[in-house]
Amino acid sequence: MAVWHCSADREGSYDGKDLDYYDRLHRNRGFRKVGYHILIFEDGTWEKGRAIWEVGAHAKGYNRNSIGIMYQGGLDREGNAKDTRTPAQRKTCKDIKQMLDYVYPGIEHVGHRDLSVDLNGDGVISRNEWMKECPCVDVKTEL
């Protein structure tokens, strides 16, 4: 399973937020190192965080059997959830999805929010059941 995340950074606040920044952020939260396997930056470049074979630290209860992918952004300037991906990020998201589909045929792509608990038991994770809005984009239709 590929679990997609946003960094929950406000639009326009990305200066100096590179792999080392997110690594320090996660270490300060008690992680061994950055929890994601792939990080996609505002300009569309991407870097490897954890090795694919390493257990991630990005989606409690799913880390052992998933690949964590984060794109930078996810919040507007006021801190509200928003798809802030740049055209370059959108392209890179599609490219990484294609690569994962090729390497892992049949891999399922979900947003972190899609792993929320189905509180009403109807088999659908509805917006009111999301534990958070991350990744602020519908992975099933937007990638």
Report what the structure shows.
- Strands 4-3-5-1-7 form a five-stranded mixed sheet, covered by helices on one side. Strands 2-6 form a two-stranded parallel sheet.
- The protein contains three helices and seven strands; from the N terminus they run E-E-H-E-E-E-E-H-E-H.
- It is an alpha/beta fold and 143 residues long.
- The protein has helices spanning 19-28, 87-103, 139-142; strands spanning 2-6, 9-10, 38-40, 46-48, 67-71, 74-75, 109-111.
- The protein has a single domain, classed as 3-Layer(aba) Sandwich (Lysozyme-like).
- The chain is globular and about 35 Å long.
- The chain starts with a strand and ends with a helix.
Relative strand content: 15-25%
Radius of gyration: 14 Å
* CATH class wording: Alpha Beta
Number of discrete domains:
1
Give the H and E element order. Answer: EEHEEEEHEH
What is the CATH third-level topology name?
Lysozyme-like
The helix-and-strand class reads alpha/beta
**What is the first-to-last residue Cα distance?**
15 Å
The largest sheet, given as strand count, sense and whether it forms a barrel, is: 5 strands, mixed
Percent of residues in helices comes to 10-25%
User: Strand order of the main beta sheet, please?
Assistant: 4-3-5-1-7
Mean pLDDT: 89
CATH architectural designation: 3-Layer(aba) Sandwich
Unreliable residue runs: none
Q: What best-fitting shape do the alpha-carbon axes yield?
A: globular
Number of strands: 7
